[in-house]
Structure formats: structure tokens, C-alpha cells
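hey all, quick one before standup. I had two proteins in the batch that finished overnight and I want to keep them in one place so we stop losing track of which output belongs to which input. First protein below, input sequence then C-alpha cells straight from the run.
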Amino acid sequence: MDTEQTVYGLVRFDGEGRQVTEIVLAFENAHAADRHARQAGWAEYAVGPVRFPASVRPRATTVMAR
């Protein structure tokens, strides 16, 4: 598969410094992520796209002899 699929993530913040306390993946769309946060009673959160490459090629590695 050579395409990328976009899913959405939810980041929960806590306190004045907006410290990240929890990250929840993966939602089909931003509305689903927002709905989850509201149902969980989260007051401070952000929703945004998260992308996972569909095709991942491993990096070449070199084995070093001792």
C-alpha cells in the first residue's frame, strides 16, 4: 500500500502549563475524538491529525565486528 491514511488523536492537558497527561489514538475523524473527550468529561484537550505511513521501509543497518 503506497498511500497514507489520516486518523485523529486526542491530547489531554492538565494544569496551568498545559502538561500532557494522556494521548488517545486513533479516531476516524475529529468529531469522534471530540465526542470521546466530551463524554469522558475532559475540560482541556486538543484534537489533531496523526499520520502513519502505510508503507514503511526499514533503514539499512551495518553490523560491526568486534
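OK second protein, same deal, sequence then C-alpha cells:
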Amino acid sequence: MDDAAAGLFRAELDAHLQGRSLQFHHVLRFEQGGQRRALLARGVAVRRDGKPVRMAGALTDLSEQERLHEQAEQDALRDRLTGLPNRALFMELIAQRLANPTPGVPIGLVLLGLDDFRAFVERQGPVAADAVLVECARRAGQGTGRAARAGRVVARLGADQFGVLFDARIEAGALVDRVPEWALARIEEPFLFETIEEASAGSRTGAHRLTASAGWAFTGQGNFSPDDLLAAAESALARAKAAGTGHARLFDPTQPRIEASRRALREDLERGLQAGEFQLDYQPIVRLSDRALLGFEALIRW
């Protein structure tokens, strides 16, 4: 216990012994064996002729209770596996950055999605998958230099998705730091872990490769709210994944309108199917020279 804590303990005890409190109540916090401990001391003074002669009370160990409380607070804001901010905390950090921008420096957001990660988990198991995710978190937080990392925040947003918030240096319409491409290159570097096959064969830990896709957006593209900026990066990530593995795409401001049009068409098609608005017609195919029937063409009319 340091001097300040000891002084507070003594002051509360003196207050009770002098009759200024009905019960002594104090939580002692200290380190023991490299672990934080918390003890609740409660008691009352036993008096004789109005003077305290001894204390009657109890000590309650609150260490585990406080540890669980701290863990619950941590889990509410951080991913337990990687220790990175989770989606809730990340959105708060985006909001803070948007509310206090650096003049002349756009804010960039990259979403990294591991390609075919579900298949990897099914092949290699959860232990190897967790090891890869922890390493991806570490790599995503690295940069090309100290200055590049200064304003960078990395979060885990989903099972196989990471977000990188950064100060985007734009010159002549191009991103100077090349954060999306650099992040993809780092993730595609070999991972060293033991696969199920290697473990069963008794062979050495091998080098294995994964790819990722990236979608990104920056505030210079529009007047974004935190949700808007994330949605823009998600739209770009969807385009990157549609192009194949290992691609990076910048948000296209026209893409939301295209996607909205596609969603509207899909909803209209579903409604039309349920309402029986589609009609199947067969149109004959006839050879004109002898009017022979060659077949039919099936047509769906709406």
C-alpha cells in the first residue's frame, strides 16, 4: 500500500474511532505476487466507557469480483482474443476523430476481410485460426514508419474482419501512405503455425499463406457520419471481394445508388413472384422454307 492509500485508510479509521461514522468501511487495493488484490475491511469499534478498546469486523476478498467486473467492462469495448477495440468502441473513436479533424488531413478507413477464412477454420481448426487472427491484428497495427502509425487505430469488427482508421495524406488525388495495399501485403506474408496435417505427421511447423481483400474510403469523398464512413468502406470491400482474392478497392460514390437500384429490383422480383405476376410462355421456332416446327423458346413475361 502506498503512502496515499495508507493515509486514506488511517483517516477513515480515525473518523470511525472518533465517533464520526457508524461503521468503518474501506477497500484496500494492492499488488501481491504480481496480481492486483482488493480487500473490503468492515467493522465497528467496541467501546468501554465511551472509548474504543477493540475492533470487531471482517475482511472480504473482492479480488475475483473486481477482476470479473473489469473483464466485463473490457469485453464491452474490446475483442477478448486480440485485445483490439471492438465495433462499439471503434465507432466511438471514429466519431471522436470526425468531431476533431486535423485541418487539411482527411480521415481514412480501411476494412480488411480475410479471404475464404471459414474454409481455413474448417481445415485447420480453431487453434490455428485464433493464432492467425492475433497475428493479423499485430500486422494491421504496423506501418511504414512512426509518423504513419501515430494516428492509426486498428479494431476487430467481425470474425475475419479488421478496421484501420488512419490519417489519409492525399496528394494529386492519390493516397501517399498506400495503407490499404501495404496492409494486404503484410497479411499475405507467410504465417508460421503447425497445421493439423503437420501435427499428425510429426513434421516441423510450416509457412502458410492467406490473402485478404480491402475496401477503403476517406472523408474527402463526402460529408460522412461515422455510420456513413463505415458503410462506404463496406461497399468498397464488397466490390473488392467480388473482384476475387487479394484486391483493394476505393469507395465509389456512385456505388450506393447502383446497389440501391439492385436491391429495389430484387425486392420487386420477389414481390412479383409471390403475387404470381410472372407468366411462362412458349414461343414456337419455325423454319420458314417449309414451315417445319423446330422447337420452342421459353419466355418469362412480367
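Flagging for whoever picks this up: Residues 78 and 85 are 4 Å apart (CA to CA). The two ends are 80 Å apart (CA to CA).
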